[in-house]
Amino acid sequence: MALPSHQRRVIISADDFGMSLEVNEAIEKAHREGVLTTTSLMVAAPAAQDAIERARRMPNLKVGLHLVTIEGDSILKLPAITDTQGWFGRNQLELGIRYFFSPHARSAMKREIEAQFRAFSLSGLSLDHANAHKHMHLHPTIGNLLIKTGLNYGLKAVRTPYEPSNPLNEATSLGDRALHYWTHILRAQIRLAGIKTNHYCFGLRWSGHMTPEKVQSLLPQLPSGTSEIYFHPATHQNTQMAQLMPGYDQRGELNALIAPETRHCLEENHIHSIGWRDL
């Protein structure tokens, strides 16, 4: 039964499932021993098959697609959108311009997104939700293709990365205002498709530093409605992760998920842990 919208509800999730064995190990541990209920799978990443096998052994862990269109491996390795190794670039502005203005790139991206949804379907896992690596679905082209393609695969929910500053005791920045503008566009796309989304999302400003102290300070401040709190846990960083995510305290994020104090904080503040299907 759906909970009243005035209550505080939270979806506790982890991104980058499949990126590495270190990430997969942490996500399994956080689900079995902690408060993690949901994760998002990178289907072309090096440890994707290991992630799928772990997910099959954890039927209560809800898994969605973590669509990769930046800073990661592709499936089709199309030259219009990747380098010769099939790797998406890291320059978000450059990629955003290409995806918007180049018909050739848009056509290739449509094929790639279809391939990633198809790969998820072939895994045999139930598609719980979808989002995009580095929140690239805020880009109107990527958001539109993710939603339209996802509907053909039973997509029911998409993350909206709208993070208000007040619960974080932070001032609203120009970057926050720009992000909020793009979330309005994404929400319109989601609403038009008739699928579900969250009210708020936390983990952007403190990305890589969602430590026990930060999370336990955030939880009592959560606003009414449904918040997603997402993490990047890992048992430790390998060489590639250290290059792509320098300074991330991924072990600290794992500790936040398994700390008994985090579960106690949820209970003490009457915050209901839910999944995307409960929206």
List keywords for this structure.
alpha/beta; 7-stranded parallel sheet; disordered N terminus; 13% strand; TIM Barrel; globular; 279 residues; single chain
Concise summary:
The protein has 279 residues and is an alpha/beta fold.
How does this model look, in words?
The protein has 279 residues and is α/β, with parallel strands linked by helices. It has one domain (8-278): Glycoside hydrolase/deacetylase (TIM Barrel, Alpha-Beta Barrel), CATH 3.20.20. Helix content is 41%, strand content 13%. It has ten helices and seven strands. It has helices at residues 21-33, 48-56, 92-101, 103-122, 140-151, 174-193, 212-218, 239-244, 250-258, 260-268, and strands at residues 8-17, 38-41, 62-67, 130-132, 200-202, 225-231, 272-273. Strands 1, 2, 3, 4, 5, 6 and 7 form a seven-stranded parallel beta sheet that branches. The radius of gyration is 18 Å and the shape is globular.
